[in-house]
Amino acid sequence: MNLPNLQDIEESAQVVYRAFAATPQYAWGQLGAQLGATCWVKHENHTPVGAFKIRGGLTYFDQLARSATLPKAVFSATRGNHGQSIGWAARAHGVACTIVVPLGNSAEKNAAMRALGVTLIEHGADFQESREHAIDLAAERGAHMVPSFHINLLRGVATYWWELFKAVPDLDVVYVPIGQGSGACSAIAAKLALGHRARIVGVVSAHATTYADSLAAGHVVEAPVTTLLADGMACRVADPEALAILQGQIDHIVKVTDAEVAQAMRDIFACTHNVAEGAGAAAYAAAWQERATLRGQSVGISLSGGNVDSAMFAEVLQKQ
Asked: What ranges in the chain are assigned the alpha helix state H?
């Protein structure tokens, strides 16, 4: 797969900006003090769906419309943020949208998708089973299946890294949470397009290690998913195209536990009064884990989403 180039990203930014403005990035003093470094936070929790994924949905549907292949109906699978992205973009283009989520998925993410006009189907014990069911249903009903990883999703997602790298040209390192890989691969695309010098560190849940295991092995390695907090990173099978892009471009991988993610959620709220979902706090959890190596550096983290159920967030805050 060829990564989006600078022209692709700049054109995609204009598509994104028809829906919302560039999100801010701030150097939060208290977070920086905890790391002993300058800590820039890219606030993708400030998009209209509370997560970075909307950028990819907008450019995916824009590319379909440009190629005159806009379908009447689409299917996809998600733990929540990708589904909101596809639901938002499908509604904007007048396309019927059905999303498959695992049983027991986030109630508030499910409600957010339904509010966008999505038909929601609950099926499967995890994301992979939901994905396989969505593929089967799309084929059965002659609908278009929107994947979780695709070049036209990367075009949009790369715009947020392009914004950050342009705004902070002296970044030394960025920490990127990895679910199905679009965030990390888009960070690579933006870095290469701009010739930025930042090291890119991937972050996975210690309870969902398919990408860490696959990168170490050089091929896709399925791994069990047991995270209870970082649902945006709860992937059992790495995407082979994403893996090929990450191989050789990621500086290294950090594994963060649910306990570390919970502490990062508390720290982000206390220091910035922004709500981070589990995957949204994972980048800061990784930076905290590696703080001894970051002293005096300029560090970028992605607050990739803020869509955590109220009850879960209350429980996290109470467990000091």
From this structure: 6-17, 29-35, 54-66, 81-92, 107-115, 127-141, 151-167, 182-194, 210-217, 240-246, 258-272, 278-289, 310-318
Domain match, 70 and 211 both: no
Residue 40, beta-bridge partner list: 27, 300
CATH of residue 125's domain is 3.40.50.1100
> Is 188 found in the same domain as 159?
yes
Would residue 110 count as lying in a domain? yes
The number of residues in the chain equals 320
pLDDT tops 80 at residue 298: yes
Beta carbons of 160 and 23 less than 8 angstroms apart: yes
pTM of the predicted model as reported, rounded to 2 decimal places: 0.95
β-strand partners of 203: 177, 254
Helices (H) and strands (E) in the chain, counts: 13, 10
What's the pLDDT band for 68 if we cut at 50, 70, 90?
Answer: confident
Taking the CA atoms of 36, 179, 155 and 193 in sequence, report the sign of the dihedral they define.
positive
What percent of the chain clears pLDDT 70, i.e. is strictly above it?
Answer: 100
Is there a contact between 285 and 203 (Cβ–Cβ < 8 Å)?
A: yes
47 and 58 fall within a common domain: no
197: number of Cβ within 10 Å: 12
For residue range 174-222, list pLDDT tens digits in order: 999 999 999 999 999 999 999 999 999 999 999 999 999 999 999 999 9
The whole-number average pLDDT for the span 63-76 is: 94
Q: Are residues 224 and 253 in the same domain?
A: yes
Structural domain range at position 30? 6-52+151-318
Q: Are residues 199 and 273 in the same domain?
A: yes
Examine the domain organization and report whether 175 and 94 are in the same domain.
no
